[in-house]
User: Fold these one by one.
Assistant:
Number 1:
Amino acid sequence: MPHVISTLCTREGDCVEVCPVDCIVPGDKNDPVWGKYFYIDPDTCIDCGACVPVCPPQAIFPLEELPPGHEADAEMNARYFREGPGYWDFNLEEQRRPR
Amino acid sequence: MRVLLVNPRFRLPIDTRTTPHLGLAYLAAVSERRGDEVMVFDADVEDESIVDVVRRFEPHLVGITANTPQVKQAWRTAQAIKSVLDVPIVLGGPHPSVLAEESASRPEVDIVVRGEGEETWLELSATLESARQTAPQLTARELLDPQAHLLDEVLGISFQTADGNVHHNPARPPIADLDSLPWPAYHYFKMERYTNLQPAIDAVDGARSFSILTSRGCPYRCTYCSQSIMPQKWRARSPENILQEWRHLVEELGAQEIGVLDDSANIRVDRLMRLSDLLIEHHLNHVPWIFVNGIRADLASKELLARMKQAGLKRTAFGVESGDPEILRSINKRIDMDTIRRAFKNAKEVGLETIGFFIIGLPGETEETMERTIRFACELDPLIANFSMMTPYPGTKVYEIVQQHGRMLVKDWDEYVFFEGRARYEMGALTAELVERKWREAYRRFYLRPHRILRTLLRKDFWINWRRTFRLAYRTLFPRREREDLRKAIESV
């Protein structure tokens, strides 16, 4: 059961810093389709939950605990890697929300 | 500069095996690389007293490590050192990292290092050395002078200035590149005096056994585990970097067995696959190695286990913890029983010896849930089952839960020694009597099954080590006598 980044994501990027298997990727902020959120690769996620407590807007959930109204977010994460851009060589500081 | 690194006396009542302290070995290595003259004093294996060593070596800086049951002994050691030499004394290790104020407030302790020690230790050494250039006879009190501000910029430390204020400097970021660290400096240890943590070969004593750390930390946050004191970011050495140290241990130090001490070695499966390939390719797989602290059952595929077996892995442990699905969920282990079953089956099928770690008396347990754990242990039937009574260590979630809803039965840090046969807390219906009874029952029911007795009698190491085996059984059956002996031992510095 992987974890899922929901549409509550505000692109803080803290999750990328703690992920032990580097399976969290930002949609390019200039991409009109994928640019709003970060995504978790469900095939690589080891379900450790390290990203959950560091997410400022509390946007990350275990798949089985997605809040009502966010059920479709799991498919969105999977689709980013299946049909969308997937992994790419990004600069986190450029991609995360300015702080 | 002369630096002295100290491991205070600490022996578990269940066994007398000792192993070089890996944390001190790393600190010794970075100090050596800095150009310091290093001495390691491990009270568990030394003949001399710490006072005699300090008089002879006259260190400029002393570092003492401490886990929870060791911390009072660390304070006593610091007092003993201060009684003969006014030298800055630094305390580090798991316990002071969690309860920094407690140790920093003590007069015999000058500085507490919180968390990972190497970079902080180096910076403290450099700070002290630079201060000593202007004041060669610098005392610990002068180092802590609030007007001098000598320690203000050192990250990851806590200290009490002479005006009585305790300062907690900001945390130090974790070491990003573990490959940049030198290898543990075992040449400062009296290696011939150590045995090992978990014998992989039949000769328990006299084998040249070394430990290795291939990654640090754990991204999981199980409620009973003190890993939460470490940075959340799990970090790993590269397989190529590990290979170099492995070759050094085998070819230059003559290692006959190697214990991998990682908390979570298999977070990245591809990394262990690559390491295994390298060990095979470089003909280092003839030396048996073991995962002393276990690996994640959910990340141990049969393919990975088989490859590691080929690479020399002899035995692995898995943290099972509980045989009750609800308790397993409540401890945030993020694993289910079927996954654990599969891991044990796979490990046995590829020819690995297995160890199961189980906990008796987790918060929320009942007689029924502990019964399920015992039955699950018998079903999994590892070579070794290790039942621990839940000990709520400072820094763990369980410690917080017990502080809020339960009653601690241990009154002193010295009593945190585990494997002692005594419950550490009570909470609701979970009484000490119940936990102690189920714990004894767990060992009895697991090991006194006819096929287990036969299996034990057929093992070569049982006969080679029969003295130790019976000593161990005696200590488990009669812990009180042992506890008194232990107390006497740790109180004599």
Note: The two ends of chain B are 26 Å apart (CA to CA).
Number 2:
Amino acid sequence: MEGTDRTTLLLNLYRTMLRIRLVEERFVEPILSGEVKCPVHLYTGQEAVAAGVCAALEDGDYVFGSHRSHGHYLAKGGDLAKMVAEIYCKATGCARGRGGSMHVIAPSAGMMGAAPIVAGTISLAVGAAYAASVRGDGRVSVSFFGDGATGEGVLYESLNLAAVLKLPAIFVCENNLYSTHLPILECRPSEEVYKIAEPFGIAARRVDGNDALAVYEAASSAVSRCRAGQGPVFLEALTYRWRGHVGPDDNIQGAHTDIRSPEEIERWRKRDPIGRLRALLLRDGAAGEAELASLDERIAAEVEAAASAARAADFPATKELADHVFSRP
Amino acid sequence: MSGGASAAPAARTEKLTLAQAVNRGLAEEMRRDPRVLVMGEDVGVDGGVFRVTEGLLEAFGPERVLDTPLAESGIVGAGLGLALTGYRPVCEIQFSGFVYPALNQIFAHVARYRNRSRGRYAVPMVIRMPYGGGIHPPEHHSESYEALFCNTPGLKVVIPSTPYDAKGLIVSAIRDDDPVVFCESERIYRAFREEVPEGDYAVPIGKAKVVAEGEDVTLIAYGSMTRQAVEARDALARESVAAEVLDLRTVCPLDVEAILGSVEKTGRAVVIHEAPRNTGVGAEVAALIQERALLSLQAPVQRVCGYDAVFPFPLLENHYLPDRERIVRAARAALDF
């Protein structure tokens, strides 16, 4: 890819990642102050995975998320203000204030939903891939999950079913090296997650999850493979979350769970996916400092406006408590 | 939505078992609606352990009659993915006792996707499972845990007792926009035949049926226990006791009006199920009656249930399962109170 296409792609990736980053970081203070009461699993540091994968998708493709899905939601085209409102549990939220951070959903954008049950939506993505396969409509279905999901049995049921039926399913494992608070080598025999897909005959590879362009290229090739009817793909994106498992800092040394050293976090901060892409944009001459600064400002303003609107919005009405249990009350 | 008013039955009928009646309902809905597909273990080439899906593969092909790996969680999860993307899947769980690996999907996602999406997704999905005792295999192949599903907001739970109802109810379940757990009694799959109309008719979900009228006591049952209740009624009739038999047909949501209407008339109720007693459907029915019809009651509501024990194999099975004698005894206890 060269010239204008590449510039457009890089700028889009950058914009998507920056929107995710600034939203995530905007929640740090309200979480710490107790203003945001809903448990929040921040995506800071992993932005290149959501941005890179979703940039390779069409609007009609399906994405299923996890407990840490703000990035997937935004990258797939979910409305930013509605997500912020959802995390504030307001009626204007994307799940009308009834789901919170772990249930972001945007059906019209193909973001089919997320859930805190680890590995919970992987088999749903396989079902959606089967629907696409039977209809022959060329859609692909993407399941995002973390390395922690590799401990859950339904992942293997899903890999098997997708392989047997040769479905257009892309399994994206964001390996951030921790299953909640447990380092990966304390719960898996190997750090190399992608190898779990190989016995199923699924094309599998590991990609640098902090390199948005590399993720995009791997995802594009997976999408092409799926659309050509060549069966599922497993992508392991090696990355790192800067913040705690839940909340800003729950397992940084000095806080209550004391798992990760500040030095380890600092090492990964130096591999900041956004900083790397910014450097690439400048090096390529795809954007200048002034242009990027102005983009930063515009996104910061968008996030600030979303937060103000969310704060001012109403909570869901009591009378809605039993709505949508069944199709008819 | 489910059937609403039943369509006029077609003139031609066929004498069918309950298993065959479910099969006819599935086939007719698949013919009528290309979005309906069937998936599960051995549902295709084999035609199902109980032959319920026999002939569907030949009629509708492998895409719509999907033989899956042995993976209950995957089957139900993939079924939900299909339901969210335009299909109306009917997932078969080979025996109700095999559903436990899929409970995560059912409780955590299937039951609440409508709620999670605030009504933007419907979940038009049926989860069929043979349930209950009477054919002598051990525990997982014989047990009844419908109450688990009744205790889960977002699920409907349907348990037919006759071939006619089984066909009409599976049709309604498939047409319903909400997930339906459809339990089919293994014991009565082939126990008897009855005339079942060919062609399109639906039995509405959420409506009980008065199987036999009476004034002295109401026997409330469903699934395989409806036949036991009818036998008990006949025995009571020989003692000049007129028992009314109410077949719930849907255990969630309950037909509150039918239950209260009958008990207000008879003043006495016996609830019968083969599932364990503790917090079973009988407990809910009994609570409902005392909340809403206390002043009509002449006696405490009686429960005739399976025991709070693992389903026994096989010699104790007949002791575990409620039968005519136990139901008659409970009715007498209500009458003599």
Note: DSSP finds eleven helices and eight strands in chain A.
